[in-house]
């Protein structure tokens, strides 16, 4: 019975990973994203960036944000450990989450 549940989740996760990659590519194409940001890079103020997590089939889109000020890897030391990365970015005034609509093309 547990296997049936896992089988239902796997296609969703694969679709989500594919969608996140397509969204990233579309933002890059439109010049709205400066490319994948290396883990230790500074994200410049006003830059739009996609927050992702996981790997392979666990890869997921956690949100699309606009940096309100430069985000330096050193800043993460100030964030409360109990909050998610997205919540930390917003709470500390580093970013605002952008609303977006998914448009799936057939």
Please outline the helices and strands.
Elements: H1 2-29, E1 48-53, E2 60-67, H2 85-91, E3 95-97
Antiparallel strand pairs: 1-2, 2-3
Structure write-up:
By secondary structure, the chain is of the alpha+beta class. Helices cover 33% and strands 16% of the residues. It has 2 helices and 3 strands; from the N terminus they run αββαβ. It has helices spanning 2-29, 85-91, and strands spanning 48-53, 60-67, 95-97. The chain has a 3-stranded antiparallel β-sheet, sandwiched between helices. The protein is globular. The termini are far apart.
Largest sheet: 3 strands, antiparallel
| Overall pLDDT | 75
Form type: globular
Query: Got a strand count?
Result: 3
The share of residues in extended strands comes to 15-25%
Q: What Rg is obtained from the alpha carbons, in whole angstroms?
A: 16 Å
Distance from N terminus to C terminus (CA atoms, Å) equals 33 Å
Number of helices: 2
Read across the widest sheet, the strand sequence of neighbours is 1-2-3
Structural class: alpha+beta
Task: Give the helix proportion (percent range).
Answer: 25-40%
Low-confidence runs of at least 5 consecutive residues: none
- Element order, helices and strands? HEEHE
């Amino acid at each position: 019975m547990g296997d049936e549940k896992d089988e239902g989740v796997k296609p969703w996760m694969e679709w989500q990973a594919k969608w996140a990659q397509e969204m990233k590519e579309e933002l890059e194409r439109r010049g709205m994203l400066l490319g994948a940001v290396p883990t230790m890079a500074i994200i410049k103020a006003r830059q739009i960036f996609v927050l992702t997590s996981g790997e392979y089939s666990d890869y997921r889109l956690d949100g699309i944000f606009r940096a309100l000020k430069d985000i330096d890897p050193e800043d993460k030391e100030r964030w409360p450990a109990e909050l998610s990365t997205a919540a930390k970015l917003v709470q500390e005034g580093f970013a605002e989450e952008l609303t977006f609509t998914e448009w799936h093309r057939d």
